[in-house]
Structures are given as structure tokens and as C-alpha cells.
Amino acid sequence: MLRLVLDRPQRLNALTAPMLDALCDRVEEAEADAAVRAVVLTGAGRAFCAGADLQADSGNTADGRAAGPVAGREATLQAAHRAVVALRRLRKPVVAGVNGPAVGVGVALTLACDLVVADESAYFLLAFRDVGLMPDGGLTALLPAVVGRTRALEMSLLGERVPAATAQEWGMVTRVAEAGRFDEVLYTVARRVAEGPTMAHGFTKRAVDDAIRGLLAEAMEREIDSVGVLTGTADHAEGVAAFRERRPPVFRGA
Q1: For residue 212, which of 111, 118, 115 has the smallest C-alpha distance?
Q2: Of 5, 61, 86, 220, which has the most beta carbons under 10 Å away?
Q3: pLDDT (average), residues 133-140
Q4: How far apart are CA 119 and CA 25, in angstroms?
């Protein structure tokens, strides 16, 4: 069993493009390693993942030049898409251990996994609206496939926390662990799948995912195009400024 940890606890494991690229590398290594029969993905500290890091450096373009904020966000989004696809394509079971809040792209990572164990204190949140953006990371396909259109829009448009117990009722979570039993429940589930027929699990994943495979690719292309437009809006600039200044945003619809 391979344990992968989003390890940036000082930022609640907020994601950057290099973090996501490293995750892809580890997933590829797991695919090639016959000794790995299952993968656990969890977060360090008190959060699973706070989503994309709005305060991170913009990063670099492919030729090594400094990227602007829009290019930096696009690089993170593309890296998130690669990570989601890598988790989905892995022919071995992946168990998400949601030890705390899962926000934004962090929700996409949980939905890219095959089984989800959440601590009872955990919650799921799409906060894209608060910075004038739309869900990305493949969420526009993954989320409605799991919870349906109405609940997907509820999470996206209202931006309210979904507690672990509710997420389980909606089909986002496999098991909810009581306080103090998170590791026990997580690794009981992980060992169960690791001890199973790995090849059969891989064929099962592929068969189940085939129905959404094309939709996910189309959704990711649409997300990149749409986010490219939205990052240039006044509402997005206001959302980011409000986030950094710790105040409610005032959107103008432009």
C-alpha cells in the first residue's frame, strides 16, 4: 500500500502546480510498481486540501519566464486536470482519506479517488463563487455524476459547507469515521481493497468510469476556456482582493 500525503499543512495543503505535478509522478510510480496494490491519498495536519493557493507565486511558463497571475492560475488548473486524470486512470484502487476540510480542487481530488473515508469533522466546500470563478478541476463533470445536477448547482452557486455525514448521504463519501477512529477506519478500508484482486479492481474501475470518460475530457476543456475568461473579469479581481483583505466581496456581475 502506498500512502500519498498533501504535505503543506501551514497553508492547509493549498495546491500549487508543482505539488500537483509531484502527485502525478507518484501516481505513475504506483502504476509501475507491482508491490503497490492500493493507494491512500490524505492531507497533513488539520485539513485535507484548501484548494488552489491564491496567494502562491504565479510560477513560470514552459520556457522558464515568470508567468503573470492569469498564466499561473492556468498552469495550476492544467496540473489539477492532469492529477485528476492520473488518479482515475490508475489501475489500482485509490482511497481518499479526508481528514479535514476539502475545498475547491480538493473536492475534485476526492471525487477522482475510488473510495472516500472522511473524518466526522470534515466538510466539502466549493468556494469558487467567492473569487468570481466557476468550479474546475473536472468538477463540472465529476460532481453532477455523483450527486446530480441540483446538488451540484447547490454546492457551486451557494458555496456552503457540506458536512461529512451529508456528503455520505449524497454519495460523495464511502465511510464516515467517528472522532478518534479516522486512521482505523481509513486503513481498514485500504487494507480490504489492497488484499483483493488488483487486476479485477482495475478492470472494474475502467468499466465504471467509461460512462463519464468522454464527458470529463470535454468538461476539462470547457473549464480551461471559461476560467480563462473569468480570470480577466472585475468580479474575479474583487474576489481575490476581498480574500486577501479578509472582507466580503462586492460583485458587479462584470
Answers
A1: 111
A2: 220
A3: 98
A4: 27
Nine cell digits for residue 152: 451540484
Decide: residue 245, CB within 10 A, 0-12 exposed, 13-18 middle, 19+ buried.
Answer: exposed
Contacts of 35 (CB under 8 A, 6+ apart): none
Give the side-chain half-sphere CA count within 13 A for 74.
19
Radius of gyration, CA atoms only, the chain: 18
Spatial contact of 63 and 26, defined as CB atoms under 8 Å apart: no
Q: Show contacts of 70-74: CB within 8 Å, 24+ apart.
A: 70/228, 70/231, 70/232, 72/17, 73/227, 73/231, 74/224, 74/227, 74/228, 74/231
C-alpha cell, 203: 478492470
- How confident is the model over 184-223, as pLDDT tens digits? 999 999 999 999 999 999 999 999 999 888 999 999 999 9
